[in-house]
Amino acid sequence: MTRETVVNAALTLGLLIVPMWALMADEPFIITLATRVAILALAGVGLNIALGLGGLVSLGHAAFFGLGGYAMGILASHAQSYTPLITWPVGIEGTTSMPLIWLVAVLAAGLGALVIGALSLRTSGVYFIMITLAFGQMLYYFAISWPAYGGEDGLSIYLRNGFPGLNTLVPIQFLALCYGLLAIALILSARLAASPFGLALNAARQSAARVQAVGLSPYRLRLVAFVISGMITGLAGALFADLNRFVSPTMFSWQTSGEIMVFVILGGVGRLFGPVAGAAVFIILEHVLGGISDYWHIYLGALLLLIVLFARGGLIGLLAGKAAHHG
Amino acid sequence: MGDPILSVQGVSKSFGALAANRDISLDLRAGEIHALIGPNGAGKSTLIQQIAGGLRPDSGRIRFLGQDVTHLGPARRAKLGLARSFQVSALAMEDTVLQNALLGALGARGGAYRFFGAALKDAGLRQAAEEALSRVGLLDKAALQTATLSHGERRQLEVAIALTLRPKAFVMDEPMAGLGTAGSQQLTAFLDGLRAEAPILLVEHDMDAVFALADRISVLVYGQIIATGPCDDIRANPDVRRAYLGEEA
């Protein structure tokens, strides 16, 4: 067992113990915080596939987070107001079923990632950052100016969407759902990294010329990774909207993209549990420091600076040392 | 003799006012090692880039296995069976030696779109990768991180990856560079046997290796080929002596 495995196990244990304690101590707010950690970590797991494995510095992942959020908001608002989503060419109703919403969110985010990726992956470096940022902002301003779904004010959903067999309004049950999805995403992400695709994607990050010389297209590898990455972040967006029972254009904003990136960098770029550690620390800091000062971001900034300067592997790197090379 | 495996026909390439390659023609026939030599800045790297697909010629054509590949990118050419090794090692430095070789095996298989199942546990890939590593004598270093390899070992790994592709032709850009005398001799012996598998277009500065290996030599000076022929003809060619070999001696 490597040190990283131990750190990951400890993190998992922490994520399980805290809500159990909160349940017994009757602290529903802590459970909600844990749910936030799980959802934001999930968004980070998505970004980590593009950023950590693919080396794609996307400053536009809010686009997928927002697409997932609006997929939920639009479907649920139609179900809530008993108005059909579309009537032509076929009648489609809204829904409050989480599995269905997740499916739509993942598909919408995947399609968005396909379009954005196909265009932006033709560039690299700072241009790629700028183009992904621009796409995110485009969707942000579109959401603001689209009155049908709340425009600038966003959309409120009165009841949390349902999942068969669960009462999602009970915080611990919704948390369990989010944990379940995060666990699945982590397992898929680990398997992806070790798969032939992961090997090729990882090599394309390090030397595109090498990958081409063995007859593989770095562009196509990156595009597939970008779509998978966007899908996972989109799912997180749908959950985030459900957690708050509210969707707003802020989900699309570049600050959101930045925060998702902060989770990944704080926790450790390319490390499996990096986004989990990053999101957990982010939420703890927000909660603890936020109580002391409204300007808590300045401390977050200082921490981020220290991490980037002195611990390139993020928190996981700090605790578990350099990445292991499975050989 | 049949058609050449690879043929470069009247290729020219300029960068602004600088003509890097002017009307270059050469071919690579089955079973041969064709060495391309020339002083620094003669345009060898530019030509190799065009053959591998990284650069497009301004004019002229490149044919590989009878097919016009002038407008194909490097990945497509590699898929057709053109394997290259780089002058400056292009390897996944953070990965292990084995993972780099696996990448080659993966390319040879023709697709990397398998998302489940560990690459390291894929028996087929692993066998191909390990076989190639053992042929260049790197198998005992398979588990090491590539960045820890010596310069010479990286060159060997480049060759190993090329081997995993089971190519129809090799294009090798200074594979001996940075190797010690013993390493050069070892690689020379290895390449000598390799020509039976697929012909090699060899760019090399190590003249001992070139004269030991080459069936034919082309001499590139100031972007033009001034002579092509067997070793003895090249050695005796006064233009070549003046332009190139003389400077070295």
Describe the structure in brief.
The complex is a heterodimer of chains A (327) and B (249). Chain A has 327 residues and is mainly α.
List descriptors.
heterodimer; A: 327 residues; mainly alpha; two-stranded antiparallel ribbon; 13 helices; 2 strands; globular; B: 249 residues; alpha/beta; Rossmann fold; 6-stranded mixed β-sheet; 4-stranded antiparallel β-sheet; 9 helices; 24% strand
Q: Describe it for me?
A:
The complex is a heterodimer of chains A (327) and B (249). By secondary structure, chain A is mainly alpha-helical. Chain A has one domain. In chain A, 72% of the residues lie in helices and 1% in strands. Chain A has 13 helices and 2 strands. In chain A, strands 1-2 form a two-stranded antiparallel sheet. The longest helix of chain A has 27 residues. Chain A is globular and about 55 Å long. By secondary structure, chain B is an alpha/beta fold. Chain B has a domain of 155 residues: 3-Layer(aba) Sandwich (Rossmann fold). Chain B has 9 helices and 10 strands. In chain B, the strands form 2 sheets. Chain B has a 6-stranded mixed sheet with strand order 6-7-8-3-9-10, sandwiched between helices. In chain B, helix 3 crosses helix 4 and helix 3 packs parallel to helix 5. The longest helix of chain B has 14 residues. Chain B starts with 5 loop residues before the first strand and ends with a helix. Classes of the chains: A mainly alpha (327), B alpha/beta (249). Chains A and B meet through helix 6, helix 7 and helix 8 of A and helix 2 and helix 3 of B.
